[in-house]
Structures are given as structure tokens and as C-alpha cells.
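Thread: Modeling a multi-component assembly for a lab meeting

Hi all, long-time lurker, first post. My supervisor asked me to bring a structural picture of a complex we are working on to next week's group meeting, and I have zero experience with this. I have the sequence lines for every component (498 residues in total). Could someone generate the structure of the whole assembly? Inputs are pasted exactly as I received them:
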Amino acid sequence: MKRIKLTVAYDGTDYCGWQIQPNGITVEEVLNRNLSELTGEEITVTGASRTDSGVHAQGNVAVFDSDTTIPPERIAYAVNRKLPEDIVVIRSEEVPGDWHPRYQETEKTYEYHILNREMPDPVRRRDTYFVSYPLDLEAMRRAAAYLKGEHDFKSFCNAHTDVQDTVRTIYDLDIIRSGDLVTVRIRGNGFLYNMVRIIVGTLVRVGRGFYSPGQVKEILEAKERTSAGVTAPPQGLVLVKIDYPGTGT
Amino acid sequence: MKRIKLTVAYDGTDYCGWQIQPNGITVEEVLNRNLSELTGEEITVTGASRTDSGVHAQGNVAVFDSDTTIPPERIAYAVNRKLPEDIVVIRSEEVPGDWHPRYQETEKTYEYHILNREMPDPVRRRDTYFVSYPLDLEAMRRAAAYLKGEHDFKSFCNAHTDVQDTVRTIYDLDIIRSGDLVTVRIRGNGFLYNMVRIIVGTLVRVGRGFYSPGQVKEILEAKERTSAGVTAPPQGLVLVKIDYPGTGT
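Re: Modeling a multi-component assembly
Sure thing. I ran the full set together rather than chain by chain. Output:
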């Protein structure tokens, strides 16, 4: 029996998120079905991050246990031949039998893509949030500075969650413009439910001039979801990668 | 009666190209239907470029004549509220009644996007050509240099066409890498049927080492379609813009 770690990319547009649920097709169930067909075993993957409906990934992580004779690093190529083209296993490798994608120290990197110009771009409608108003990126960067470091992010957590500990650490929060594309890149030790999308929704309100950068400090200190901006839409968000600094994987 | 010029962007994935045809839905017919509904007239647009099935546009051009009282520059916003989200009119403006999008001097700019890395990216599958082999960009640039200027591009024209004059001028042909995305940007006074895609298919063969850069000069001189490389797939191609240097529009 081997434990196999998968690095998984997907276009989340046509999925009801990662986690199996009764009302729609999910990335997890498509992986389970295709890995089961490939190995002839009943495979159940354990994922690192339960991305929401419409959210994309370049590097989500999952593990499963199998007796397959396919060499671990070939599993990616073998299952990609079966998977639909909106899910790709980027990498497969053997990890120790007790390696778990969630119960250890992690660093997650997300990007949120905003298309900031006067008219929408139909080719980018599935992976960007279209904002036609001018954005003051300097104001957004000053606001973002208040969010870096260790804080209680209760104001930036969807209220429909039962998580108790809302303290997280943001290591980097950069806002980069390239032509009409504005990328918010954020790296932290973990993120609450909808946290990146609420941060982006709030920063966009700063960029439009509705909040001053200093108000973001007040929002953070309020520890109340209703004080922050709206949740930015899912299609702009991509889970770029998950690092495991403790294990070097 | 006014003549209105439209600048049109679309995601070509789900269309059988620009031009109306019996076997599938096209961008032209969707524009005609929605402009007719908007104005209450029977509108027939005349397009500048008949892009192929699956090819995208940031700035194709079309004109139509109308008695509508909607101000010319507002037509874009009004019709965008009706159009499906994969077609967007970027701009609308009045032009002289004899202004024609094809029968005058034009400069067209295309980009072709190649995703060049080991594994596909599901989010970019609709607007890039995935090439997993390493590409020698310097060799591709040396080959591209032979194609710049005025030449008979018969070798780079789909044989299923009855066009007589196959002489065209390429003003610029640049190959730029940004991370794992390779962009071939090409500007010319006109392009033959499939010409950009055959050029890209040939340059990719140079980049993989199957042709030397000098062979591209021989292919050009052969004036025979079978001498060039395969036609690169449509989804990597986007018509960026059409300029009309004679009229300043």
C-alpha cells in the first residue's frame, strides 16, 4: 500500500467546488471515479483545500492510498488520459504513509484576478472579475498593509461557518497591475471560509474610494463580518499552490 | 440613415466562426439578431474579418446602417445588455456612409498564444495551444525574420481557397515569452486563409528542431502549401485589432 500525493489543477467554472455534495458535480468525485477506474480499486482522495464553486486551482493537493503497480510519478499521466480536460493532475509522487494534506503546517498562495478596463473581455470572463471603474492601486496597497501579519480575521470570514479560531497569518499581500489585469497575490498559513474573496471585495471598495485605507484597520478590529466589503465573485480566484514547509514537499 | 462601426470582441470557443453558415451558430448572426431586436430594423452587419471556428477576437470590426435614434456611441452599451456574455461590443461610433471595413487599406494585428510547459493548464485550454516540448525561441525568431516584409505567402495559405493574389506584407513578427506563455504577435496588411496558423505551426516545428530557421526561407520560396508545417489549432489565435491607416480610424 502506497500513499500518493497529487497536485491538481482545474478550471472550476463547471464544478460545484471541490468537495462531494448532493446537488452537483465536484472535482473530488471526478478524481475518485477516474482514479478508481485507473487502479481497479475503490479510491477516495483526501484534499487539502475545499475550494468553492467556480474557484480555480493551479495546485490543489490531494492524497490517496493504493496498491497499484503504476509507478507513482506515472499516475499523473495515466489519469490525465481519462480525466475531462478541465481537470489536470500536474504531478503525482509517493509520500510517507502518515503524510496528510491538512493536519500539518501549510503555506497557501492564492491569486485573485481583476480585469480593470472599460469593457469586459469575453475570453477572460471565466477567470477574472470585471471591474469597469478606475481603481486606486496605491490606496489598495496601503489598505493591504494593515492585513499583513497575524490577526484575528473574523471580519473577513463568511458568517456561515462554525470555525472557532479565526486568527491567521498573512505573509504577503501584493497588488500588481499588468496592462488591464490587476492581480492580488496573497500567501498565508491558512484562510477562513471566503476570506480571500472578502479581502478582495473590501480592497476593491478602497480602490473605488468608498473606504479609506485606514478604514480597513477599523474593519479588522471590529471582528464582525458585516463591517467588511462584499465577497468578490468566485471566478477571479485561483489556488496557486500549497507548500508544506515542515516536510519539504 | 447612419453607418455605425462596431469594434467587437468574442470568445470564439462556442461559435462556428464569424460568417453565417448553415451548420452552426456564428458571431455574425448573433450580432444581426440582437441589433435587429435593439433597433426594430432588419440589421445585417458587414464584417472586416471572417475569423474561423474557435478563433477569438479582441477587436474585429463590422458596420451596419440604421435609422435608430440611439446615439452611435451608446449602441455598444445597449446591445451588450442583450448579447450573450461571450460576445462584447467594445465600441460603437458613426462613420461616413461610404466607409467599408474591407475595401480599403488595413493593418491587422493577431496574437497566437502557446502554453509551453510540461503539463496543460485547464484554465487556459480555451485560449492557448498547449505544447509540452521545449521550444527554441531564438531559432523561431531567426525563422520569423525570413517572413517579414513583402512576400508571396502561397506556401502559408490553406489550399482550399480561390484567392489569386497571395502576396502580402508582414510588418512585425515578434515572439515573446512571459513565464510559460509564448506569444507570437504578427502585424500585416492582410492575411490569407489560415496564414497565421500555418506560420505558427511552421515556427513551432522550428522551435522543436524539426526544421532549421533557413528551411523556412525555402518553404516560402517553394510557394506550395505542402512544404510548410501543419496548421496550428484555432483556440490559440486572437484577432487583436484592425487599423485603417488611410482614415485614421
